[in-house]
Specification:
Length: 155
């Protein structure tokens, strides 16, 4: 409560002060905004891509554990890796790129899921494969993460 605002007895009993209504409205708007932000984050591919930074406040929103994964130097899918790779085989290529770009290692679920779903990469359209492949082949990534994820036993 703002100490400059004089609250009458009725306002406390019935919660009908202008201040309280404004606060309730602001809380409601903030909750809707946070819900949309959380849904947006959960729709991302990897936890490191699910973090969102508010440049106005300097606050980092991390609904998916991305900061823990950055600190642990691992790449993890937001949804189960099996489900994510089955739904979008190009995600396997993006996992290689994210790991290589940031010097991360895959989580325990990514390697077996990559092996299990690697045949599906052949079913992806050339247009969907072109960008991740071009990115992987045109940049100078550290070789270890690329080798680890793209070895014949992985993909």
């Amino acid at each position: 409560w703002d100490t400059d605002h004089d609250v009458g007895d009725d306002d406390i009993l019935y919660g009908d002060s202008i201040r309280e209504n404004d606060a309730r409205e602001n809380d409601s708007q903030r909750q809707r905004w946070l819900r949309r932000l959380r849904v947006n984050a959960r729709g991302r591919d990897f936890t490191v891509n699910g973090m969102m930074y508010d440049v106005r406040t300097g606050y980092l929103y991390d609904f998916c554990g991305g900061l823990d994964d950055v600190e642990g130097k691992c790449v993890r899918t937001i949804n189960r890796a099996d489900e994510a790779f089955a739904a979008d085989p190009t995600l396997m290529l993006r996992a290689i790129r994210v790991a290589a770009l940031h010097g991360l290692h895959p989580t325990r679920s990514i390697l077996p899921s990559t092996r299990a779903h690697s045949p599906a990469i052949r079913t992806a359209s050339a247009l969907r494969l072109a960008a991740p492949l071009r990115t992987l082949l045109s940049r100078r990534y550290p070789p270890a993460p690329v080798r680890r994820l793209s070895s014949p036993s992985s993909v």
